[in-house]
């Protein structure tokens, strides 16, 4: 009871203090001629006094009803990401902020009384544009764009009342500042000296730390995540997700790292914070201790967009909106495993796919498969991955490869293109032994068929070595999921390939297959492309095998070039 009484007294003191500061702020507005007294206004709003970051107070007017009656000014605001990209990489920067920028624009006489608000001292209206009006931001942006139109995008960037002067060479910065100051004097716009920084090499602009090296995350925002405590309720989880959203640009695959947090705040779900959530939070904190440095794209450079999700079409459409300023000004290469080009060009498309196809047709987008590797680089790939590979006999290989009871590691990949079909097989043992094969198929095959042929070839080699335990790693999503039972094989050929694989798997005492990123399967990938690119099997260090018929249609016929062992 006493606690509630003292809490009531405390609230009363705070309320009186806010009223006092509100009256003081109104007196300041009267003294500076920004407001005037008014009688019988048609519109009347309430006053809200808000404390700013610097400790000062600002009078906000609740113009909710007035804003509902006002038409929306469609004048666009600049894209923040595009402005930040255009700012990075300059030697010297100057950050300027207008002093109560909105209040430096006069209201039309006929509209002044519409901004009326009531206080303890009376009813007043604004003679200048106040904060809180629906179209205040668009009006101010129109003004500064008119003022600095010759310099925007060259030596200046302006987002409402945040102004920045940039110079690629420090020797030009004084001249650029003089041009900006001349315009400010011409329009009698005043700056806030406490928020200005002149001739610096780095600084905060629109929530980002801009430097000559590139774009960095704001240290304050990073600290807000690394020092946050484990959430104890839904509200604290919302605070966490809000901080994460502010740094999404610096968090690679943020949805994978943070999806557990968003699941907690879903509707109709109670608060549940498990060890899995805590582990994800600690991983996020560790990741944010060294956030990546972002660089701006080079003019005229093609940008590559990598998509690996099942809903690649939807992801392309979503990213084209989120990253529109990149899609408009650059040639975009979408690298994906899925036939998006074929899907989006079907004449019978309807519904969402039809809308996405029409929307994406306005951009310069090129779709490329992930398997595309230039043939002239294949030899370099092989030389890099196997610099000192010595030819070995089959007996020596057997001794090295299966000398212990640990599983062999098998990496496989298939490649099908206009040059032909090739398979890559890499076998590794815990003793350090390696076997590599580049196989050229003398028959046509699709990409999926080539992937299965590569796996079957690898299984057969492991069985001939006498291996009992095998751990397969490959990057083909379809094959791995069909073998694990997550995907169904509906095509008759795929069903036959799947049966052939499972028959071989049954001969192992232990078998595990998992999908890995393409970056971790580059050896097998290079060998597969090598097999599809070269018709001459006379290679010095890599045995070249030939399959004369598909494995599922006839008994395996393997021809080995024995010259490599001589």
TrEMBL record:
SUPFAM superfamilies: DNA/RNA polymerases, Ribonuclease H-like. GO terms for molecular function: nucleic acid binding; RNA-DNA hybrid ribonuclease activity. Residues 31-210 form the Reverse transcriptase domain. InterPro entries: DNA/RNA_pol_sf (IPR043502), Rev_trsase/Diguanyl_cyclase (IPR043128), RNaseH-like_sf (IPR012337), RNaseH_domain (IPR002156), RNaseH_sf (IPR036397), RT_dom (IPR000477). Pfam families: RVT_1, RVT_3. Residues 404-533 form the RNase H type-1 domain. Gene3D superfamilies: 3.30.70.270, HIV Type 1 Reverse Transcriptase, subunit A, domain 1, Ribonuclease H-like superfamily/Ribonuclease H. PROSITE patterns: RNASE_H_1 (PS50879), RT_POL (PS50878). This is Uncharacterized protein. It comes from Centaurea solstitialis (yellow star-thistle).
């Amino acid at each position: 009871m006493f606690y509630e009484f003292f809490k009531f007294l405390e609230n009363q003191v705070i309320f009186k203090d806010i009223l006092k500061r509100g009256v003081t702020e109104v007196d300041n507005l009267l003294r500076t001629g920004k407001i005037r007294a008014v009688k019988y206004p048609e519109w009347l709003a309430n006053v809200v006094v808000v404390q700013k970051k610097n400790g000062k107070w600002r009078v906000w007017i609740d113009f909710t009803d007035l804003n509902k009656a006002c038409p929306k000014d469609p004048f666009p605001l600049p894209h923040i990401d595009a402005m930040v990209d255009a700012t990075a990489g300059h030697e010297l920067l100057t950050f300027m902020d207008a002093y109560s920028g909105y209040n430096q624009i006069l209201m039309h006489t006929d509209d002044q009384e519409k901004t009326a608000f009531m206080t303890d001292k009376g009813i007043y209206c604004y003679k200048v544009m106040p904060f809180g009006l629906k179209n205040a931001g668009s009006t101010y942006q129109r003004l500064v764009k008119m003022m600095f139109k010759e310099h925007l995008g060259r030596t200046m960037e302006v987002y409402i009342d945040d102004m920045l002067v940039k110079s690629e060479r420090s020797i030009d910065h004084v001249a650029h500042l003089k041009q900006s100051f001349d315009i400010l004097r011409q329009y009698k716009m005043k700056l806030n000296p406490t928020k200005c920084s002149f001739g610096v090499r780095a600084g905060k602009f629109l929530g980002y730390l801009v430097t000559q090296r590139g774009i960095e995350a704001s240290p304050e925002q990073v600290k807000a995540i690394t020092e946050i405590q484990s959430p104890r309720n839904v509200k604290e989880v919302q605070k966490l997700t809000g901080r994460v959203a502010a740094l999404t640009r610096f968090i690679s695959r943020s949805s994978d790292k943070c999806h557990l947090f968003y699941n907690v705040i879903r509707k109709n779900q109670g608060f549940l914070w498990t060890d899995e959530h805590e582990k994800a939070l600690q991983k996020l904190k560790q990741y944010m201790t060294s956030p990546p440095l972002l660089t701006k794209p080079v003019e005229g450079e093609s940008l590559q967009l990598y998509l690996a999700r099942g809903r690649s079409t939807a992801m392309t459409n979503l990213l084209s909106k989120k990253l529109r300023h990149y899609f408009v000004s650059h040639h975009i290469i979408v690298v994906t495993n899925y036939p998006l080009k074929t899907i989006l060009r079907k004449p019978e498309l309807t519904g969402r796919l039809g809308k996405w196809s029409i929307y994406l047709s306005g951009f310069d987008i090129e779709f490329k498969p992930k398997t595309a590797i230039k043939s002239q680089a294949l030899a370099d790939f092989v030389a890099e991955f196997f610099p000192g590979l010595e030819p070995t006999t089959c007996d020596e290989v057997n001794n090295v490869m299966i000398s212990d009871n640990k599983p062999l590691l098998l990496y496989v990949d298939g490649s099908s293109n206009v040059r032909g079909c090739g398979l890559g097989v890499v076998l590794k043992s815990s003793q350090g032994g390696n076997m590599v094969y580049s196989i050229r198929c003398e028959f046509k095959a699709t990409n999926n068929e080539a992937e299965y042929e590569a796996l079957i070839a690898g299984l057969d080699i492991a069985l001939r070595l006498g291996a009992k335990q095998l751990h397969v790693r490959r990057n083909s999503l379809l094959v791995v999921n069909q073998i694990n039972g997550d995907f169904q094989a509906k095509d008759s050929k795929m069903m036959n390939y799947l049966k052939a694989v499972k028959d071989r798997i049954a001969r192992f005492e232990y078998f595990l297959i998992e999908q890995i990123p393409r970056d971790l399967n580059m050896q097998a990938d290079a060998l597969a492309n090598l097999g599809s690119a070269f018709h001459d099997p006379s290679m010095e260090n890599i045995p070249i095998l030939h399959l004369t018929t598909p494995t599922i249609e006839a008994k395996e016929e393997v021809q080995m070039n024995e010259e490599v062992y001589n």
